[in-house]
Design a protein that fits this description.
331 residues; alpha/beta; 434 Repressor (Amino-terminal Domain); Rossmann fold; 4-stranded parallel sheet; 15% strand; elongated; transcription regulation; transcription cis-regulatory region binding; transcription; DNA-binding transcription factor activity
Length: 331
């Protein structure tokens, strides 16, 4: 009969480590867990008594780690993952990373401790090196809405630069030359890529980027209101604005209207994501559509079906023309 000592020797670990794996301790690296479990299966080791490990535990689940719960964006992401999980007869375990590297790490360890080896993660805080390390240990880990070149086959992402490029080009084609950009203070990959698209569009049109047109503000709706206030304090030196996301656009639009700025007659606005119902906007918001639900579905499929699939990894944003961007009255 195979003993715990036999398993430890074959796996090249201590008996204490095997015991921790059996009892689902969170203090074991995912690659070590996978190695020990594989040895246990190969050797036919049987867990007895009240020990809690079941080799198949977690195989009917799909893990999902999102950055926040309080946003329609993450609702669509979750919906996409859940649709695929249901087709594969999996239940979704959800945790929040809260835009914090330690929280994201804890969430991964929590999933692994529950036996979950298929995980879709929306990570904006962990470093590329940390994600690479986890991806190498967990082939079923798929990063959604972020591109890490070293693990590209385990990523599904949006060409964010293309999105703000399209938004800015649209405003330039309408005749705008003084175009503000509302960005976030948080250091996330989207921030760099989206500013790059805005900058490229201006430079190609021969327009110099003016630092007075750029507002970096805290994440969320209060940030959008602050950016609008700052631009008003500068005398509103622009005729148009591209916002980092629709939440910024909605909050800024409200502040501008409260101070008598007519939208879009005096100021055209383009958002990003297209996740908020248009009843929140008057006029209806011209924006860039991020296909986050489709991206999430592909991420879930790659996690469950394997990364050898020919499923699309990179997605492209669309410009959705509505009523908030028009030809400028004056420039």
């Amino acid at each position: 009969m195979t003993t715990i000592n036999d398993v430890a020797k074959a796996a090249g670990v201590s008996t204490a480590t095997v015991s921790r794996v059996i009892n689902q301790s969170p203090n074991v690296m995912p690659d070590t867990i996978a190695k020990v479990e594989a040895v246990m299966q190969a050797m036919g080791y049987q867990v007895k008594g009240n020990r809690r490990l079941n080799i198949n535990q977690g195989h009917d689940t799909l893990g999902l780690i999102v950055s926040r719960f309080n946003s329609p964006f993450y609702g669509l992401l979750t919906q996409g993952v859940e649709k695929v999980a249901r087709k594969h007869q999996r239940k979704v375990i959800v945790a929040s990373g809260d835009y914090d590297a330690a929280c994201e790490e804890d969430a991964i360890q929590f999933m692994v401790s529950k036996g979950c080896r298929n995980i879709v993660i929306h990570s904006k805080a962990m470093s590329n090196d940390a994600l690479i390390r986890h991806a190498e240990q967990l082939p079923g880990l798929i990063v959604v809405n972020r591109h890490v070149p070293e693990i590209e086959s385990q990523c599904v992402w949006l060409d964010n630069s293309e999105g703000t490029y399209k938004a800015t080009c649209h405003l330039i084609e309408l005749g705008h030359r003084r175009i503000a950009y509302l960005s976030c203070e948080m250091e996330v990959d989207d921030k760099v890529d989206r500013f790059d698209g805005y900058r490229r569009a201006l430079e190609e049109a021969g327009i110099e980027v003016n630092p007075d047109w750029i507002e970096e503000v805290p994440f969320g709706e209060p940030g959008g209101a602050l950016a609008a206030t700052n631009l008003l304090n500068k005398g509103l030196p622009v005729t148009a604005m591209v916002a980092f996301n629709d939440f910024y656009a909605a909050a800024a639009m409200q502040v501008f209207k409260e101070h008598g700025v007519a939208i879009p007659e005096q100021l055209s606005i383009v958002g990003f994501d297209d996740v908020l119902p248009q009843c929140y906007f008057s006029p209806k918001l011209t924006t860039i559509r991020s296909p986050i639900e489709s991206m999430a579905m592909n991420a879930a499929r790659l996690s469950l079906e394997g990364t050898d699939s020919s499923l699309s990894r990179v997605f492209h944003p669309l410009l959705i023309k509505r009523d908030s961007a028009v030809v400028p009255q004056t420039d």
